[in-house]
């Protein structure tokens, strides 16, 4: 199992309103630790065709943009967004949002984030929602739940001390 703490990864971006650190690039999971300041937008509506997007909310509130509205996930919750569910996200709250973002299985998310940082296009499983909604799964398939949550046979656990464990693949200790 890969064990990490913040600061051991690759800094993708660090500004007053956003910090992103790439922590892991494993076949099973790519992981980042992110901080978004109040009012900071993340991604616009998009879909992933071949992987699940997971947000583990450590502090603050994640506002998930979905077709027709928004859903929120507070600290201590885990959000599973299945393939072909249109989603985006932002920090609509009044305090910093800290979250671990997992892409399962690992699908080149690390290279995609480096490409955004370096202003170069890198192919990645992130697409505009299909015209007319063809093939989309409904937003109510998104799971927002307290820890633990299972993605197939892989449990995702957020401990009270902020440690995130992804099956036997990865453990991220908050300090």
From TrEMBL:
Q: Where are the transmembrane segments?
A: none
Instruction: Establish whether keyword Isomerase is in the entry.
Output: yes
The entry lists its GO molecular-function terms as: isomerase activity
Q: Which InterPro entries match?
A: Cupin_2, QDO-like, RmlC-like_jellyroll, RmlC_Cupin_sf
Pfam families recorded: Cupin_2 (PF07883)
Name the record gives this protein:
Mannose-6-phosphate isomerase-like protein (Cupin superfamily)
The Cupin type-2 domain, residue ranges: 34-95
Keywords (A to Z) from UniProt? Isomerase
Query: From which organism does this entry originate?
Result: Solirubrobacter pauli
């Amino acid at each position: 199992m890969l064990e990490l703490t913040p600061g051991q990864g690759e800094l993708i971006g660090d500004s007053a309103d956003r910090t992103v650190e790439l922590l892991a690039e494993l076949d099973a999971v790519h992981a980042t630790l992110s901080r978004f300041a109040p009012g900071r937008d993340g991604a616009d509506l998009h879909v992933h065709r071949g992987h699940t997007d997971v947000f583990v909310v450590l502090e603050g509130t994640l506002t998930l943009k979905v077709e027709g509205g928004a859903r929120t996930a507070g600290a201590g919750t885990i959000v599973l967004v299945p393939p072909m569910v249109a989603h985006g996200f932002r920090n609509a709250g009044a305090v910093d949002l800290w979250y671990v973002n997992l892409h399962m299985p690992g699908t080149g998310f690390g290279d995609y984030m480096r490409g955004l940082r370096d202003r170069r296009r890198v192919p990645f499983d992130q697409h505009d929602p299909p015209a007319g909604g063809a093939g989309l799964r409904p937003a109510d398939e998104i799971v927002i739940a307290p820890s633990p949550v299972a993605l197939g046979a892989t449990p995702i656990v957020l401990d009270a001390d902020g440690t995130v464990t992804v099956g036997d693949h990865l453990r991220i200790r908050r300090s």
